[in-house]
Design a protein that fits this description.
- By secondary structure, the chain is α+β, with helices and mostly antiparallel strands.
- The protein folds into 2 domains: 118 residues, Beta-Lactamase, CATH 3.30.450; 80 residues, Arc Repressor Mutant, subunit A (Orthogonal Bundle), CATH 1.10.10.
- Helix content is 42%, strand content 25%.
- Strands 2-1-5-4-3 form a 5-stranded antiparallel sheet.
- Strand 3 and strand 4 form a beta hairpin.
- Helix 5 crosses helix 7, helix 5 crosses helix 8 and helix 6 crosses helix 7.
Length: 209
């Protein structure tokens, strides 16, 4: 547990949660009575604490952001037998208001038809998620020819080669490249190529349109 790079936690429900209650009552009970009883150093560091001991006894609600529909959907899945979720995506905001995304595994322990505790592990995917969102936004907003230029630049093609592939003049390629840098707030061609690599962009000649 302590050697894991993922955040590992265990919460107990006091009193235990009867599985005969309505889904809404179960969710409310989870929010009110699930308390963190164990966690490792990695979990404490995710939330900016130097020691797991400072988190023990904290309501699990503290780590969930209950106003987010995606988080609530994950909790509904967990409350449904067999009380297991795997790689469930959840998000919250840190103290500075920055959005952070996590993947979560969780499994519940049932005794006498009552949910008594849950174990889980959590790891952050914020950088990956931000890249996905940025790539999606880029696909929706960039003109097709500019996307193609970016694809080809990312694969290391010269201006001359790009002009040949797209059947346009080298001057037009330069113009597209300048518009890209201005639109993306990028200062030079090297940075633009790094940007394409970071987003995992692969060229599709058919995007030229």
């Amino acid at each position: 547990m302590e050697r894991s790079e993922k955040g590992i936690w265990m919460a107990e429900l006091d009193p235990p949660l009867s599985r005969n209650r309505t889904p809404e009552e179960q969710l409310q009970h989870l929010f009110l009575h699930a308390l963190l009883k164990r966690c490792n150093q990695a979990f404490a560091q995710i939330y900016g604490f130097g020691s797991p001991a400072k988190l023990l006894g904290t309501p699990i609600l503290r780590f969930i952001a209950p106003d987010d529909p995606q988080n609530i959907h994950v909790l509904w899945r967990f409350l449904h037998p067999p009380h297991i979720v795997r790689e469930a995506e959840m998000h919250e905001e840190d103290k500075q208001g920055n959005r952070r995304w996590f993947l979560n595994d969780a499994w519940g322990i049932v005794e006498d038809d009552h949910l008594v505790r849950a174990w889980g592990r959590q790891w952050e995917i914020t950088v990956r998620k931000q890249t996905q969102l940025e790539r999606s936004e880029l696909s929706m907003t960039l003109p097709p020819r500019q996307k193609t230029v970016l694809h080809l630049l990312g694969e290391g093609h010269t201006v001359k080669e790009i002009a040949g592939v797209m059947k346009i003049s080298q001057k037009t390629v330069h113009n597209h490249r300048e518009r890209l840098m201005k639109r993306l707030g990028i200062g030079d061609v090297v940075e633009l190529i790094h940007y394409a690599h970071r987003l995992g962009i692969a060229h599709r000649v058919g995007d030229a349109g």
